[in-house]
Amino acid sequence: MTSWVATSVALALCITVASAADVWNMEQLEQAKKGKDPVIRVRDIQVPAGRTLDFQGLDGRIIEFHGRVTFGYKEWSGHLIVIKGKNIKVLGMKGHSIDGEGHRWWDNCGGNCGKKKPFMIYTQLQDSVVYGLRIKNTPAWCFAINECNHVHYYNIHIDNRDGHTKGGHNTDGFDVHKSRNIRIYNSRVNNQDDCLAINSGWNIVFENNVCEGGHGIAVAVGGYDVNEAKNILIKNCKVIKNNIGIRVKTLLNGRGIVDGVTFENVELKDISETGIVIIGNYLNSGPRGEPTGGIPIRNLNIKNVRGNVLGNGTNIQINVAPGSPSGWTWNSQVKGGKKNPKCKGTPGNLKDPCNW
């Protein structure tokens, strides 16, 4: 833990002894936001259907979650929790649970069809800490990290394992967009979509995390108002029983850039489809057609990515527009499954990873 984060959490725990507002319902929350208590303790709130647990206008304050937070059922496309501001500490206290009871929305098609499903938590933060949250059964996407700067998310558990048998889909763990200087670490995600999806951002670190059951760790660029991902580090992570291990995917006919993505010391275990995927022809409905080079992938570093793919899976898939990528380095040991006959578009300085 970096020193400023450790100091922030220590100060938060000290302040909670001093002055805090206990909040048991939405009306008390609005009163607490108008007050001056440095700590807001959320206790066993039942959020009414179609309402947002709204933490805005709380710069410099601490939000603690105690007990069980639940939400009424409604088909809508809003956010169940919104946290915006500067210098905010969000702390999950011992024994708490934020339970979306997602089975009420799950219908095997997530955001693509069927019921309208709300986001779980939207964050737009600066110089802040989100620590220790225990989140269960999100209706669809869990964390939206949007336009954040200098924020640490750590010791967070997202448990959507019930969705494997009850129709969970698009239950992304962390979605990052237009954010800078973000660290996500010492966390665990069990879900039915990307553990991490970086759509755009700069100086993002995803470290010491465990991803189970979903679609792996992805840098997925294209189709948004900003299509740029630079200086991304995914390090010391485990990807267990996902369909994909790690991937960089850029939108077919998209425009933008991916520069400086590093996967270092990533362990893959029992991957069902493909261990490593690098493609330039991504669409939401799946890869299609010949890859385009409008979003070049530069300075990609694969360092000690290792593990196994199950019998009918594929070790490595690379399909990018020839001449668009550059400056790649590659060191992987992915066993099992089957090999592609040839990677397509790999930079000329690199031996074909598909045939190592």
Automatic annotation (TrEMBL):
<dbReference type="GO" id="GO:0004650">
    <property type="term" value="F:polygalacturonase activity"/>
</dbReference>
<keyword id="KW-0326">Glycosidase</keyword>
<dbReference type="InterPro" id="IPR050434">
    <property type="entry name" value="Glycosyl_hydrlase_28"/>
</dbReference>
<dbReference type="InterPro" id="IPR011050">
    <property type="entry name" value="Pectin_lyase_fold/virulence"/>
</dbReference>
<dbReference type="InterPro" id="IPR012334">
    <property type="entry name" value="Pectin_lyas_fold"/>
</dbReference>
<protein>
    <recommendedName>
        <fullName>endo-polygalacturonase</fullName>
        <ecNumber>3.2.1.15</ecNumber>
    </recommendedName>
</protein>
<dbReference type="Pfam" id="PF00295">
    <property type="entry name" value="Glyco_hydro_28"/>
</dbReference>
<dbReference type="InterPro" id="IPR000743">
    <property type="entry name" value="Glyco_hydro_28"/>
</dbReference>
<dbReference type="GO" id="GO:0045490">
    <property type="term" value="P:pectin catabolic process"/>
</dbReference>
<keyword id="KW-1015">Disulfide bond</keyword>
<keyword id="KW-0677">Repeat</keyword>
<keyword id="KW-0961">Cell wall biogenesis/degradation</keyword>
<dbReference type="GO" id="GO:0005576">
    <property type="term" value="C:extracellular region"/>
</dbReference>
<dbReference type="InterPro" id="IPR006626">
    <property type="entry name" value="PbH1"/>
</dbReference>
<dbReference type="GO" id="GO:0071555">
    <property type="term" value="P:cell wall organization"/>
</dbReference>
<keyword id="KW-0732">Signal</keyword>
<keyword id="KW-0378">Hydrolase</keyword>
<comment type="similarity">
    <text>Belongs to the glycosyl hydrolase 28 family.</text>
</comment>
